[in-house]
Amino acid sequence: MEGTIRTDSAPAPVGAYPHARRVGDLLFLSGVGPRTPGSNAIPGNVHDAGGKLLAYDIEAQCRQVFANVRAVLEASGARWEDLVDVTVFLTDMARDFAAYNRVYAEHFPDPATAPCRTTLGITALPTPIAIELKCIAQSKATRGA
Ligand SMILES: N/C(=C\C=C\C(=O)O)C(=O)O
């Protein structure tokens, strides 16, 4: 079955898009960052009294963004192992690649079964986050939405 997926288990979209869309046996996820579902808080972010971002924790953001991807997959009836392609956007490649790469490997310990991956450095993301993931999974509609 084809259609869109939206779930309260992942951070609310910041625009006019669903969390995911199924087309045949493929599931396309919208870009998702490390906002906490419900509160929208970004784990590890430190702000001054005026709300200016003073510091962030890339490891905490990585762990939350992977949790958010998992939540969208599960809401779609898919599993972590169904991921086939992951595009990762980092706002500061020089500062964050090593920590991100380490946490990534914890989540995909075996390269033989891991999804394809592409990592890009970009100048900005729509929310005050340092990482965003764009994922495609293969998952039969019979397993879920
Ligand atoms: N996917 C988009 C933004 C996601 C932001 C976030 O999860 O914090 C978009 O604007 O296309």
UniProtKB/TrEMBL annotation:
State one Pfam family annotation: Ribonuc_L-PSP
Q: Which organism is it from?
A: Dokdonella fugitiva
Q: Does this UniProt record's set of keywords contain Hydrolase?
A: yes
Q: Could you state a single Gene Ontology molecular function term?
A: 2-aminomuconate deaminase activity
SUPFAM superfamilies (UniProt xref)? YjgF-like
Q: Which UniProt keywords apply?
A: Hydrolase
Q: Which domain of life is it from?
A: Bacteria
**Enzyme Commission numbers on file:** 3.5.99.5
Listed under GO cellular component are: cytosol
Entry similarity comment: Belongs to the RutC family.
Report the protein name in the record. Answer: 2-aminomuconate deaminase
For whether the record's keyword set contains Hydrolase, the answer is: yes
PANTHER family annotated for this entry?
A: 2-IMINOBUTANOATE/2-IMINOPROPANOATE DEAMINASE RIDA, PROTEIN HMF1-RELATED
